[in-house]
Amino acid sequence: MQRIAVVGGGIAGLTVALRRVRSGDSVVLFEANNRIGGQLRSESSDGFVVEHGAEGFVARSEAVPALANAIGIAHDFVDQLVFNSYRYDAGALVALAPGEAGRMLGFQVESEELGRGIRSFRHGMGELPESLLPSLDGPFELCLGTTVTRIAPGTHFITLDTSDGSVREFDAVAVAATANSAAAMLEQSFGAKASALRAAPLHSSVTVSLAFRRERVNHPLDGTGMIVPNPAELDGVRAVTFASSKLPERAPQNHVLLRAFFRPSAAELTHTDGAWKHRTERALARALAVLGAAEAAWISRWPDALPVFDDAQRLRIVELEQALAGHRIALAGSAFHGSGIDAAIRSAEKAALVLAGD
Prior knowledge:
Layout: E1 3-7, H1 11-22, E2 26-31, E3 42-45, E4 48-51, E5 57-58, H2 63-71, E6 77-79, E7 85-89, E8 92-96, H3 100-105, E9 118-121, H4 127-132, E10 140-144, E11 148-153, E12 158-162, E13 167-170, E14 172-175, H5 179-195, E15 202-213, E16 225-227, E17 237-241, H6 243-246, E18 255-262, H7 273-288, E19 296-307, H8 311-324, E20 329-331, H9 334-337, H10 341-354
Parallel strand pairs: 1-2, 1-14, 2-10, 7-16, 14-20
Antiparallel strand pairs: 3-4, 5-9, 6-9, 7-8, 11-12, 12-13, 15-18, 15-19, 16-17, 17-18
Helix pairs in contact: 1-10
């Protein structure tokens, strides 16, 4: 039995933990926040299923269904209902072909995935990490609210220093955190190759989900949503998902759920929930002829949460992984191996194999 540390409680870290626990290893998972799931977080409220993070995964994914089967929730898959979308341009909505919206927004997925839609779970994407945690039924310890401050490889073991003052020893470590967090943990031992991860460009995001009675929205909502190529035309809105049209069971009968996406400045991240709600209501009134105030609102803030993968960042990751090779330390997750849930899980599966030590 190996002693494995997993740093990061998002879907990648949880996947590594599951695979190693089920292989007979003892796993300790460290998560700096007070909840698991990372950017997968769903909320059910009065018949609405609201996503605070990712709304789904690419429809052709094999990694997500395999993981769902492993934890017994494959029966809860739901498929996208519609595939066409709209573009907001000069005050009017223009119909787009399937895949065109994702291409215009620069989604960081394989080109063949564009237009094929997404899949999700009946209770939202948060169902995946929430169901995965109780599946860790072997020797497993969860340390919430605990930051790993240093990872130092030694001759016979790897030492982890944590924010609670403890020092623990492990046989292998999976780093499934953000690039900046990985740099902070590894730079004392791996120098510039770890520090270089800080150069990765990051975007922040705010999403605003609003609930309305159906009769208050004069647009047919007959698509996945709309994109806004020039966000300045619509008060900073980059896109709107017609959530209750795109996926089943997202809103109760005679209601709709709309979700607006913003890329905020640092100052805008501090705006109140009420300010974001009113801003989005004004934008939807202009674009979709929505009448009146929303019945309910859910605002999600994700500062510096969206990595941008360019050739320079990919090279930084390759060079760091070369330095880590032989030290039983693996990088896992969307911060290192491509955006999206499918990519995060595939990365985690590979990391779990690296830690096997075979």
